[in-house]
Amino acid sequence: MLEINPRFRPPFDPDFLPAALWNRAYQSLVAKDRAARPFALVLERPDGSVSRYDGSVLGSTHPRAELTFLYAERLLKFLLWQRGGCKILVAGADEIAASLAKLYRDEGERAFDARFMGEQVYRRPFIVEPASLAKLPVESPNESCSLGRQLKGCRIGFDLGGSDRKVAALIDGRVVFSEEVAWDPYFQQDPAYHLAGVHDSLLRAAAYLPRIDAIGGSAAGIYIDNEVRVASLFRGVPAELFARHIRRMFFTLQERWGGVPFEVVNDGEVTALAGSMAISDNAVLGISMGTSLAGGYITVNGGITPWLNELAFTPVDYRPDAPRDEWSGDVGCGVKYFSQQGVARLAVVGGFGFRDDMPLPDRLVAVQQAMANGDPRAGQIYESIGIAFGYAVAHYADHYDLRHVLVLGRVTTGLGGEIIVARATEVLKTEFPAYAGIRLHLPGEEAKRHGQAIAAASLPVLSGSV
Fold first, then answer.
1. 86-100, 252-266, 294-308, 421-435 — which is least confidently predicted?
2. Range of the domain at 337
3. DSSP assignment of 236-251, as one string?
4. Are residues 323 and 444 in the same domain?
5. Averaged confidence pLDDT in the chain
6. Do 338 and 385 contact (CB within 8 A), yes or no?
7. Which of 204, 320, 382, 383 is the most buried (most CB within 10 A)?
8. Distance of alpha carbon 189 from alpha carbon 68, whole angstroms
9. Same domain for 103 and 209?
10. What torsion, rounded to 10 degrees, do the Cα atoms 287, 389, 283, 430 define?
11. pLDDT tens digits, residue range 1-31?
């Protein structure tokens, strides 16, 4: 491994090895290597869109050449969950292309990622293959779409979370009704439960509108062209029923509501959109630290990308024995640091005693109560999260054009959220002067509660005048 000496170390996670610092150390070696090679990764999606990353790697005979595989493997993992793709072209280092292809085979260490991106998300075989730099496709010219910020007319917006449904009714951008209704979708096997729940929220909002011109929604998961591809909200639904009733459930709801414009996207994208609308600026990364870690991005031009932005599964910690995500089997990914899982993990290190059957939300509440009571261990938990997050934001900024990061989710509630943002900001200013101008925002309570549904309502574009 490279020798890395972070200026900040999380109190309860001192061995955290920031991806941003590791990559800079590796690129420092590359800059001194006269035999360094151009290197590129291309990610293709079934619709023909292409994401491309160009860089450089060490020459194959360099004394530290073994580091190149770790660099390329972690880079591909990040790009895969940030941008999405089911066909990967690797150019500039044939030995790395072969190693990556082996890693993503059915029996390889990244078989989960290959199946997920191939079969579940894009419904295509997942392929990794070598390519010539001279013959690589160029990046798609416009990797963003103009959904959102449409407030004209009578609109309904909804946001589906793991513990509640939020809905808002708007008339020309003015909120005339909003509410939050508890539900428990995770382990419900009957698709009718989910359809009835969303339909009920729409009915409640519709009662406050003279007509319905458009409906927009956000929910955790991956949605492509309004189809549900993968979503934890519906994980209790058997595969056959999912395919028959859930995959196109929003088309079913659109029919029930007379075929009005109807758009549904990932909740991370709408989080970023809500933040962009609130601060009247673009280049916004939205981060929600809740049950998992959600991400979304608004481009410099104010558009939403077709990328996945599933930052829960992007690597932020490069130590070999980093915490392992039980779902994907990989180590060092954001979900184990910036979510309820991260709080619970650090709380155990800090000496909090939890029953084995104590749910994660209850563990978070216990830590928050300890924080309110002045328990220094709770403060160190949030300091640990904040320091790691500062390094992660720098890593994100290496892959996104950022001016703002919107930080929300239950983990950030109360004083703990302020500590996270303060420590992360300190890390950015001290370790990464080039990124010191990135502003981290904690939204107010009203924006947290209903801003998501309001932004979701602005997604559909109306055809013709209202």
1. 294-308
2. 276-451
3. TS-HHHIIIIITTHHH
4. yes
5. 93
6. yes
7. 382
8. 45
9. no
10. 160
11. 788 999 999 999 999 999 999 999 999 999 9
